[in-house]
Amino acid sequence: MNARKLDVLVRKCQGVMVEYLVPDGIDAETAMAKLIGLLDGPEQREAQGLGERP
Questions:
Q1: pTM for the complete prediction?
Q2: What CA–CA distance (Å, rounded) separates 37 from 29?
């Protein structure tokens, strides 16, 4: 795994959680959609060194 890219990915996920947890933040459905997008997207595969999906 690329540690730097993984760190960036984790920080982005933390940012989504902050958006959800603050008063008047995003709703749970939006937070889940953003997290799934980050965790199942190209950034996650890049952090793992897997590249693009076929």
A1: 0.76
A2: 12
